[in-house]
């Protein structure tokens, strides 16, 4: 077995600490740096980022690119960037790395810190293929040569998560206005989400063919439904930001001639 590379982790927040612990668990020699000095068992603390850049691989996990960018220098040999950002931010960092002779991998973590080091933690990565340290964190999933792709997958999937959580919280609040507790309601939500999941492949196909014929439910009916949902939330004394936003978007698609089409036709408005 070859000698394991030395790895530094920049950022010891919730996620960075979990990453550093996983590397230690896999037998790596780990150096850590954090703005607010922090000790982590079986790691060496670097006083400055530059000191941490002496390792073979530098893993960054800071809150944002704005925070990260000023810390990076061309002393880094291989950069595994796990800080969340936009595709353009990732591409700009990849260009900077290339111009400075730094090997670069852009990754996103589709997991919570508690899952790091288990196969449940999917690490999407793009750009470079030097992903050996990613195996310590979970299951690496290569999504392409363009360094911006991992961020694109990340934000697309998180968008579904935030929309779902927003919808769930609105529903819990609505049920709560009549004293129905989440413990009673949530099992129904899980079944419902499972059912909805089965509808996505056909919806996805329609967005590609742009053929929106439906014998299931027309957009007209869904626009009426969203109006009812908005009114019901208002009647029950709740905020209506989420249902109103959806109603506005769906109604625009209806006005533009998609009333008899399926919900998939709303993508025509989104793509504008
Ligand atoms: N937590 C999750 O479930 C999760 C899941 C997937 C991806 N991520 C991504 O992982 C990254 C880190 O998230 P996290 O949950 O670990 O966040 P966090 O717990 O808030 O930690 C943020 C880290 O950024 C550092 N930082 C913030 N401002 C800084 C500055 N001005 N200069 C230097 N360092 C600074 C913090 O240092 P201090 O300790 O000094 O404040 C800390 O190390 C984010 O990009 C996040 O999107 C997180």
From TrEMBL:
Residues 7-106 form the 6-phosphogluconate dehydrogenase NADP-binding domain. Pfam families: NAD_binding_2, RedAm-like_C. Keywords: Oxidoreductase, Signal. InterPro entries: 6PGD_dom2, 6PGDH_NADP-bd, HIBADH-related, HIBADH-related_NP60_sf, NAD(P)-bd_dom_sf, RedAm-like_C. Residues 146-272 form the NADPH-dependent reductive aminase-like C-terminal domain. One of its GO terms (molecular function) is NADP binding. Residues 1-20 form the signal peptide. The keyword Ligase does not apply. Belongs to the HIBADH-related family. This is 3-hydroxyisobutyrate dehydrogenase. It comes from Lentzea flaviverrucosa.
């Amino acid at each position: 077995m070859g000698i394991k590379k030395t790895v530094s982790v920049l950022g010891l927040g919730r996620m960075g600490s979990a990453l550093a612990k996983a590397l230690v668990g896999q037998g790596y020699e780990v150096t850590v740096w954090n703005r607010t000095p922090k000790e982590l068992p079986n790691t060496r603390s670097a006083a400055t980022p530059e000191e941490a850049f002496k390792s073979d691989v530098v893993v960054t996990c800071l809150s944002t690119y704005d925070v990260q960018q000023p810390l990076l220098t061309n002393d880094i040999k291989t950069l595994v960037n796990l800080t969340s950002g936009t595709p353009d931010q990732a591409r700009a960092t990849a260009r900077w790395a290339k111009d400075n002779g730094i090997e670069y991998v852009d990754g996103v973590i589709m997991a919570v810190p508690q899952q790091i080091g288990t196969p449940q933690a999917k690490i999407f990565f793009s750009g470079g293929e030097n992903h050996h340290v990613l195996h310590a964190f979970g299951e690496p999933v290569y999504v392409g040569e363009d360094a911006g792709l991992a961020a694109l997958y990340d934000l697309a999937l998180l968008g579904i998560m935030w929309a779902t959580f927003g919808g769930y919280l609105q529903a819990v609040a609505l049920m709560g206005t009549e004293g129905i507790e989440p413990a009673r309601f949530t099992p129904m939500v899980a079944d419902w989400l499972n059912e909805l999941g089965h509808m996505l492949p056909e919806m996805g196909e329609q967005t590609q063919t742009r053929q929106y014929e439906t014998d299931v439910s027309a957009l007209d009916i869904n626009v009426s439904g969203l109006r009812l949902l908005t009114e019901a939330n208002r009647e029950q004394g709740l905020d209506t930001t989420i249902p109103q936003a959806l109603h506005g978007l769906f109604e625009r698609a209806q006005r533009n001639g998609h009333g008899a089409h399926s919900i998939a036709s709303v993508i025509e408005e989104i793509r504008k």
